[in-house]
């Protein structure tokens, strides 16, 4: 089946006010447009259609918050009522089709309600991770120029309450653009002062709101802006369109994840990230599934059995989370003693994504759960999986270290620096042949030139993923590292991902990171940082010596692996990505900026001390 025919058929599975007569407009590459003359609405496809088809009493959303000891559920009919009324609140503040609404919220159902209410009106939402620093939030306010900001008094972490309102007030003070109004959800754990004439109380506004109907929008009208990897001077706002997004995500729920209407699907992520957009909010609701909003952690809320409790309690069929969550569970409970306390018989598959899943973690999860554990690869820009074992089509052999083959609609290639195909098994730059399938980003907000330059200029005719890896003779893709994490040791190109694979195989290592650091003789050297499993009795020096020998045995002397240290934790973003670039900058003595999304700034002090003991930065 051709790509065009695949998506023509998939488009027949969603609701259109005006069905498209054209599948793809390729007249202005790389600005490809799917279903250009179609007219639809995201919220209608997520809620109204299910209620109209007689499934209004099915549970749509389960909210479970161990950090506040709160549980709530919404049927599709209840959720539709809430969303329509909040759309009325936004409309009363002047929000109309094409306006931007910035959402700065914790993991609560109201965040999902705000997003869907924007979609109902044809407004463009931009969700910013709750608790984001004021200066970074201000940059996004200035770039998106929202008419309204929706926020809450606080977010809740296992050990603290994070006051959002002071951060928001400071951001608005710093920003050149000033929103017309702010709608604030008051949470019991934290009150907040309101600015007269600007701030509205969520509950009060909802009490008098008139429900708003869905506004038909063009398939190519923007649904949302999601900022990724932006700097203060240059925010990078990924733009997702409406029609292609609905078609692709609804198709993915059955064909990739193999869930049917009524099945419980849980993406243990955050709505501030693309996973939350695609697979907490939109994908499951398009598919008529029940989605879980979990305000907690994999460990510590209260213990390493937290995920298993949720799976048992709500009969989760398919779960999706980041490898880092499973590394955290494995570190605290390496023998799976908490896991066996729960009935997980309803769980049919576990999907992992967010960063590369080391084979050791995947195999641990397979052994403990006795179900398919599927590593799949995608990005904020793509919005849904590039490579995956597609459960709803065919379960392929699972190869640890690979997210399997390209998903239908994607044509993945590995190229050398000059744009030539590399031999099967050789590391190259991973690219995707244009056009990208529906649901991928269509541009960067207010930055079309940067869209072309950053993603499509180096390899004409292809989207540059920024990832390096190889494709084997069976078409399995291996994503080994970001392209800037492929290091050059005395002329040898080595993958830090392959080295991390070796280190993570050590029985005492819970997780690890390898970065390339500057070396006067060899250009670069690999430097390994190890986090040990809970309860390890060996001395750190003994584990380091083992790891160095292990690397020499597996990769050989060419790796020149001699720099290694044990640390308590690795610095990560709140979405679980390890901050390799920041650690590399510290080691090389380069200027670096505190990442706005870092989970805990104090970790970097420990990392800096560990690097210093190894002699970095040099001089």
Could you please describe the fold and organization of this structure?
Helix content is 30%, strand content 23%. Among the domains are: 1-55 and 71-243, ANL, N-terminal domain (Rossmann fold), CATH 3.40.50.12780; 491-613, GMP Synthetase, Chain A, domain 3 (2-Layer Sandwich), CATH 3.30.300.30. It contains 17 helices and 30 strands. The strands form nine sheets. A seven-stranded mixed beta sheet has the order 5-4-17-16-18-19-20, sandwiched between helices. A five-stranded parallel beta sheet has the order 7-6-8-11-12, with helices on both faces. With 619 residues, it is of the alpha/beta class. Strand 28 and strand 29 (523-532) form a beta hairpin. The termini are far apart. The radius of gyration is 24 Å and the shape is globular.
Tell me briefly what this model is:
The chain is an alpha/beta fold.
Helix segment tally: 17
Strand content: 15-25%
Q: Please state how the strands of the largest beta sheet are arranged side by side.
A: 5-4-17-16-18-19-20
In quaternary terms, these chains amount to single chain
CATH level-3 fold name of the domain at 1-55 and 71-243: Rossmann fold
Bulk shape: globular
At the fourth level of CATH, the homologous superfamily of the domain at 1-55 and 71-243 is ANL, N-terminal domain
What's the end-to-end separation, in Å?
60 Å
Helix content: 25-40%
What is the second-level CATH architecture of the domain at 1-55 and 71-243? 3-Layer(aba) Sandwich
Report on the biggest sheet: 7 strands, mixed
Reading off the top of the CATH hierarchy, the class of the domain at 1-55 and 71-243 is best stated as: Alpha Beta
Mean pLDDT: 93
Structural class: alpha/beta
* Radius of gyration, taken over Cα atoms and rounded to an integer in Å: 24 Å
